[in-house]
Amino acid sequence: MLLCFAGVLAAQPPIPRYEVKRAAGPIVIDGKPDDKAWAAAGKIELIFPWESQTGAKQKTIAKVLWDDRNLYVSYECEDTDIVAFRTQHDDPTYLDDAVEIMINPLPSQTGMYYGLEMNVRAVLYDYVMYQVNGANHLFKQFDLQGVQLATFIDGTLNMRGDKDKGWSLEVAIPWSNFSGLAGQPKAGDVWTANINRWDGVEPNRRMSNWSDPLRPTPDPHVPARFGQLVFVP
Asked: Is residue 225 over pLDDT 60?
């Protein structure tokens, strides 16, 4: 029995780890991650954990940086059919072509984290998630302050008959938003996060992730499986 349990643990994919470098220069949030600072950031390529999904496996590259003011995240998404209909803050953007980041600034606990779900229209759905006795409780009323968000589309939005190339997104999140759980990080600190993408239109949709949540169906809300963000100089 013990040997069997050890084998199951060994079969689980490891928690990914990413070094968040300090931005070496200014970052203009215009949806195009082409500022010089992004060149030094490592790449995160999202994986496709659920073979039961029928959507296309389209590549997503994410990067993360930091400075004294903000946490910066960028996404570059290959996409041959760019679709998004939600236009208002806190609309269910995850039903569109969208990217996400779920952030836990205090990894010693896994009962609370922050969520940002952002569609190709640069519409933000933000919330705090509490997990109590295994159940999720989402507080949609929570709004992040001072977030900068922009997208760039290489194609035509909601034109179903043509072939698009892709889209990109940049977001800057001020540190003050995380003061409830942690202060501004310093070099050597470790936060946890998962980075995700929802792609396609029902019934042919697909979710991709940085860290595999190890769920039987698409569900990234597993803070115990978030990847590690290590802040470095």
From this structure: yes
Strands 60-66 and 112-119: unpaired
Question: Taking a C-beta distance cutoff of 8 angstroms, is the pair 16, 210 a contact?
Answer: yes
Q: What is the pLDDT of residue 3?
A: 47
CB neighbours (10 Å) of residue 89? 11
Complete DSSP assignment for 17-49: EEEEEEPSS----SS---SGGGGGSPPEE-B--
| Cα angle: 42, vertex 14, 231; to 5 degrees | 40
> What does the pLDDT read at residue 10?
55
| Amino acid identity, position 151 | T
DSSP character at residue 157? T
What is the spatial distance between Cα 123 and Cα 89, in angstroms, rounded to a whole number? 6
CB contact set of 160 (below 8 Å; sequence gap of 6+): 81, 83
The type of residue at 77 is C
Confidence of residue 5 (pLDDT cuts 50, 70, 90): very low
What would the pLDDT profile of 94-131 be if each residue is shown by its tens digit? 999 999 999 999 999 999 999 999 999 999 999 999 98
pLDDT of 33 over the 60 cut: yes
DSSP string across 101-129: EEEES-TT--SEEEEEEEETT--EEEEEE
C-alpha span between 127 and 187 (Å, rounded): 27
Q: Cα(157)–Cα(21) distance, rounded to whole angstroms?
A: 33
Tell me the Cα Rg of the chain.
17
pTM of the full structure: 0.94
